[in-house]
# Entry
Amino acid sequence: MTASPTRTARWLLEQHRDRRTFRSFPPGIRPANLADAYRAQACFVDLKARDCGEPVGWKIALSNPAMQRLVGLDAPVAGRLLSGQVVAGPASTRVGAYGRLLIEFEIAVELGSDLPAPGGRCSREQAGAAVAAVRPAFELADDRSADYARLGDEAFQMVADNAWNEGAVLGMRREDWTALDLEAIAGRVFCDDVPVGGGRGGDLMGHPLDALAWLAASAASRGMTMRRGDVAILGSLVTSRFPKAGERWRFELEGFEPLLLSIEP
# Structure
């Protein structure tokens, strides 16, 4: 029997509210397939929106094929951003507010026009034509201390759980983004002024706009359209990190002012 998307979503909401450690779906809750997992995600987002505000954007997870294989999928995962969880930097967050906080270091875009994907297809050029501005971003996520070695059996839970998103911190906004080489653009990450990693725009599915095009096609496959004014974060240039209280994180995306995030207890 197919699991009820609403029942799945309510179970996930309880897990987050009680800050419970990641565990397998109980009987009768597990989505049967990817389409069912996205239906559960839609219900979960609707429930979260009561406390966290309406959807204002999108995220992409598992843009790296190696990470896809780790969790038993063959494609990235899409999720939503909620208005009450998207803030401008510099910002701070509390580790105590999450089961286990993880942060990522992303390129974000703001859409200046709708980005439909008729027939589930969107090109890099179509995606770029819809972009009004580019910004650096931190993604805030909560994996609830998941055991990554066992995620291959729980891939649909990550999908239903809105790809673990708990918000985003947005940095400097550039409308003249076409002057940038988004494929070559470099990003560097520092913790307490110590460098911890770096990457380039091409690490995001070959090009950030290819990641955006994938998001548009993914949304269209589920009867949705990315809308003017939406924000999309396109994947991390650096491996996810688990921050500790007292740390100060800095993300330097080439051509932008540094973006700062403080971690509180």
About this structure: DSSP finds six helices and twelve strands in the chain.
